[in-house]
Amino acid sequence: MYNITLIKGDGIGPEISDSVVKIIEATNLKINWDVQSAGADVAEIEGVPLPQRVIDSIKKNKVALKAPVTTPIGKGFRSVNVQLRRELDLYANLRPCKNIAGIKTPFDNVDLVVVRENTEDLYAGIEEKISDDEAHGIKLITRKSSTRIVEWAFEYALKNNRKKVTAVTKANICKLTDGLFLECAREVAKKYEGKIEYNEVLVDALCMQLVQNPSKFDVLVLPNLYGDIVSDLTAGLIGGLGVAQGANIGLDCAVFEPVHGSAPDIKGQNLANPTALLLCAVEMLKHLGEVEVANRIEKALYSVLSEGKIKTRDLGGTSTTDEFTDAIIAKL
Ligand code: ATP
């Protein structure tokens, strides 16, 4: 019996969470879901969007599955997602991106991994309003965080039989901040010489090359903001946000969370694609050592997707979240 924190989030979060829980339950794996709420509704009742109980639950269980929580745009509370990553020091954000059979995209050879620094950069939330006409934000980059994320990327490459790590910055313009990130990357890369290839690319050039020839890339390591933007782009390369998985990993805890947001435009309509969260759960089960169950779920999911008869609207189909969920369960 595993104790796992489950944050169902808001928007489409509860629908896709219920789908994933139902699929895992159908495998008979025993999980005690420690359900924790967070976000705007919680802030109204408990005063803060991310109460200490949520953090304590993850610290106790070490593992969480998290659906998206809406972040108010331009005003309101700080992102629960960002806060959680900082509170638990989940410094590595892993976003693998590989073509899935049955999902048509312009490329059929995408197999890359985005490793995003998760705690600093413009996401540190150090902003100040100077006047009605001026606001400043601090782009925080430290040697410690840059070195550990690049090391993490190289270690990931070694363990997962990857060949190359590419450091992505805009160090020609942000000479001190991205320059420091790059300096750390070069330092770390020296230790892996002969084992893992290393190269560098500017983020704007990367974006162009990704949409022209994504197979050029293997493991990408980026500061926080570029990592966020580039991983939405790479999600687009394999069929969109509905199928893009992710994980936030620290020394003690891991929170498995899809790339996409709460998709308020399709909330409560039974239209959401649970694939991204399900793939997060698959990775979570592998992380727990439940490889056989994880493989069973993955096989069932890929079988439904490759047959292509039952698919959600984001993938060009007409099936509901429930129909898609039931089709996966029938394949288990
Ligand atoms: P955030 O800034 O919170 O990460 P975002 O800007 O990435 O959010 P999303 O909430 O992810 O935005 O939604 C972007 C678009 O993708 C919306 O049109 C949404 O409906 C669609 N989308 C996102 N996730 C899914 C999903 N799981 N299934 C179907 N459509 C989705």
Give short descriptive properties of this protein:
alpha/beta, 12 strands, binds adenosine-5'-triphosphate, globular, ten-stranded mixed beta sheet, 332 residues, single chain, two-stranded antiparallel ribbon
Question: Would you kindly provide a written description of the structure presented here, covering whatever features stand out?
Answer:
Helix 1 packs across helix 9 (275-287) and helix 5 crosses helix 6. The longest helix is centred in the middle third of the chain and has 17 residues, at 143-159. This protein starts with a strand and ends with a helix. It is α/β, with parallel strands linked by helices. It has helices at residues 13-25, 40-46, 52-61, 80-87, 143-159, 177-191, 203-212, 224-237, 275-287, 291-307, 321-331; strands at residues 2-7, 31-35, 63-66, 92-98, 111-117, 127-131, 134-137, 164-169, 197-202, 219-222, 247-249, 254-256. The model has no long low-confidence stretch (mean pLDDT 95). The protein has 11 helices and 12 strands. Adenosine-5'-triphosphate binds at residues 12, 71, 232, 241-242, 260-263, 265-266, 272-273, 276, 314.
Main sheet record: 10 strands, mixed
Mean pLDDT across every amino acid position: 95
Q: List each distinct ligand once.
A: adenosine-5'-triphosphate
Query: Order of strands in the sheet with the most strands?
Result: 2-1-3-12-11-4-5-10-8-9
Structural class: alpha/beta
Give the helices and strands as they follow along the chain.
EHEHHEHEEEEHEHEHEHEEHHH
The portion of residues forming beta strands comes to 15-25%
Shape: globular
Radius of gyration: 20 Å
Number of E-state strands: 12
Helix content: 40-55%
Distance between the termini: 20 Å
Poorly predicted regions: none
Secondary structure tally, helices: 11
